[in-house]
Design goal:
alpha+beta, Arc Repressor Mutant, subunit A, three-stranded antiparallel sheet
């Protein structure tokens, strides 16, 4: 049995340090790991959704932002508990849905670290939009609203410039095939596995002021 005074001192230490591991708490309480876990449940402690869930914090210490997230010294906590529940909430409360890159930016983790989990989250549906998978709520009314909003926003925003690597491939192709159209350029690059669409080619040409030098109509497709 844990001495009440020692438990009070441990809670004070946890509040002061903001976050602690099970091992650190076991040392403070002078007890076993299972006993610490029981105490964490009774304290309704938060578990970090990164760092393998190693860190804990008290609910009254967390300073959640508008998305229900709290990040402290590289350790991330969510009002919604697990990463899955957090992603579900973020997607379903987003007006245009979210793609993996947008989710990654919000939760502060690389997309590759949770992409596999996204396929298994109940309550979401996935759809491709402009070469990216976008996640929406699976509630029909919410889905329709989110999808319409994403299409509307896509039509308003300027085309994104391609990456530096993609830009090199585009410019090399334009040098090799100066008389072909931009659509033909994009098709050639896609056939080579470069994943470049026509909007990226147009954006790059416009960025460098080359639109008039690359005619859109031409009989040459090679």
């Amino acid at each position: 049995m844990i001495d009440p005074q020692r438990e009070a001192q441990t809670l004070k230490a946890l509040r002061g340090r903001r976050i602690m591991t099970v091992g650190q708490l076991a040392e403070e309480l002078d007890c076993s790991i299972p006993t610490v876990r029981n105490r964490l449940r009774s304290w309704e402690a938060l578990t970090s959704y990164n760092r393998n869930g190693r860190y804990y914090a008290l609910p009254d210490v967390a300073k959640f932002d508008e998305n229900g997230l709290w990040k402290y010294k590289g350790v991330f906590f969510s009002r919604y508990g697990t990463l899955k529940e957090t992603v579900r909430h973020l997607v379903r409360s987003s007006r245009p849905g979210l793609d993996a890159r947008q989710i990654a930016r919000l939760v502060g983790l690389p997309a590759r670290s949770f992409m596999a989990q996204l396929k298994k989250i109940a309550g979401l549906r996935r759809e491709k939009h402009e070469r990216r998978f976008v996640y929406y709520s699976d509630e029909e009314d919410v889905y329709r609203s989110q999808r319409a909003r994403r299409v509307e926003e896509s039509e308003k925003k300027p085309a994104e410039l391609p990456s530096d690597t993609e830009a090199i491939f585009i410019l090399v192709d334009r040098i090799k095939h100066p008389d072909s159209s931009l659509e033909q350029c994009a098709r050639r690059l896609r056939r080579r596995g470069r994943g470049v669409d026509i909007s990226a080619v147009r954006a790059l040409m416009a960025h460098h002021g080359l639109e008039k030098k690359t005619p859109e109509t031409s009989s040459s497709g090679r």
